[in-house]
């Protein structure tokens, strides 16, 4: 295939140049190599493409037919290569991102709308999934995750840290009282969402009695809904409950207790980070996620 392309490219250059010597100069080849490519092409196709003598070249009918079609094809290839190279330096083309349902609805949708407005040559496609780490099979450019698996073979970029805290509804705290220490959590109603939170609770309590878990779920949004309904104390990230805290629907519990922050990270294929659309998106997300959490 490479030889066929070289033969066609040489033929087009000969037809455009008018002489073999000029075509050879434009191709960066010797006169003998340029002439040989033309002869090989004519032999392969079984027709004469160019009438030639020591002074003049002219296309045969078959040569004109080939030149017209091949010229368009080479021009199209040049255009495609230019577009591909442009995407390495200018953000353009489709950008496929996957993240969790709650993150997309609560925070990311307006951020990506701003990004799309500032980058009109990029077409943003934001998808949601229960797990957003397997982008090799799904064909996404970026996965936005929270505490992703440590053994991922993908490139990982930390965008920001998302502080965690304990909180509860005012109704619950008025009814059951406000705990004064982590030891008091053993006699409170506590809501746990998923295995990661179970580990966080264990690390938080240390040698203290384990929390009295009255409700557990694998759905973070459901855990938040239970807390808003006054069902107990929940451990949430600032991203998830900042609006509830601002509105007074939830209040911090044991605010002096330090919990490990959740990392908001982007996962992408090695090398993809050099693409302008991916690089510009990651930079934009890092700025706006940090800004949003600082405001919270």
TrEMBL record:
InterPro entries: LysR-type_TF_proteobact-type (IPR058163), LysR_HTH_N (IPR000847), LysR_subst-bd (IPR005119), WH-like_DNA-bd_sf (IPR036388), WH_DNA-bd_sf (IPR036390). Residues 3-60 form the HTH lysR-type domain. The keyword Ion transport does not apply. Keywords: DNA-binding, Transcription, Transcription regulation. It holds the Pfam family LysR_substrate. The keyword Phosphoprotein does not apply. PANTHER family: HTH-TYPE TRANSCRIPTIONAL ACTIVATOR TTDR-RELATED, HTH-TYPE TRANSCRIPTIONAL REGULATOR. This is LysR family transcriptional regulator. It comes from Sphingobium rhizovicinum. The lineage of its organism: Bacteria, Pseudomonadati, Pseudomonadota, Alphaproteobacteria, Sphingomonadales.
